[in-house]
Amino acid sequence: MKTSALLLFLAISGATCSAASAASEASARASLAAAKSEEAKAIAAQAAWTATVTAISAADKALSAGDFETAQQQADEALALAKRSIQQAEEQKSVWRDAVVR
Amino acid sequence: MAIAIAAIAALRLMGAAPLFAADAASASRPDAERKAFQSFFFAKFPKVEKDDFGNGPYAVNAGMRKQWEEIMQFPPYDFALDEGQQAWEKPFANGRKYADCFENGGLGIRQTYPRFDAKTGQVETLDGAINRCRVENGEAPLAWETGTMASIIAYLAQTSRGKPFDISIPDDPRALAAYDRGKEFFYSRKGQLGFSCASCHVVASGERLRGDILAPALGILASFPIYRSDWGSMGTVSRRFTSCSAQTRAVPLADQDESYRDLEYFLSYMSNGIPITGPGTRP
Q1: ipTM of the complex
Q2: Structural domain total, chain A
Q3: CATH label of the domain that carries residue B137
Q4: What is the pLDDT of residues A7-18, one digit of tens each?
């Protein structure tokens, strides 16, 4: 009885872990795709940051290695950096005039 | 009168109205902006002679100047001058030479670059003119940042030493637009660190950034190409622009990207009257 219960527990745990891994991989891939899309916009606006490139590269590497937690973290960071870089470029479209030597 | 109003209205509908505004501004605005720009640096560094601004940090820091004067007993760019002259004089496979592509055989003209090219509607740097000459004569273009390109420009710059920057903005709205884009680039903060060119070379010029003394923007391109100890080799303006971008943690643009050419146009125009000192050397 005890053995059966243990086997059942292990089977359920394994299935749950596998489902969780699949979910985090899908999430990481989606976040990385979003980060890459935003980074492409930043590059087009000549506003890209090197830190975004580094984070995207790290996310790609982690994803390939099956380290979905790191991939998710790096993708989230890349997305945030890319958005901030675009925001900076948008702000500077008017703010730069304040710095002109007159 | 009614015909004139109708004509203006028609041109506005065609989107030509901004042309008039640009034409009207082109005669005087950049000139006034250059005077204000130069006056800022003359006031900030009252002891620096105008002609000395082409020497960058050595003009504004006595300690660095002393070191530089000792370095200049054996200028580290000397090898590039020899290499540049040899490359310049070597005929292309078709028998023509670089000199055939430039007025006065290319000698004593560095101070007039970059130029606005009415044919392309874009700014052409001296680097760009050199590679255009090569391509038109069936040769592969040179790499932009160092090597033979830097050596050739070093040789040409030396033939212009003492000649003041003489950049013109022709009466063409596209030229004024290029100047304006260069100005915007110069003053816009970029990169994760949020630095603009002006952050270092206007606001903090003459100050220390770690071990470096920040050169004033006025005359900053007069000494190019430069032998930079940090690089251990010669570098063109392209190399400096891309490395500056990276230092602010911005992804550098491609060498000779239109934005960089516009920036060089603006900066060189701001330095009109400052003599060429290149090739130069930097820490």
Answers
A1: 0.84
A2: 1
A3: 1.10.760.10
A4: 545 444 544 444
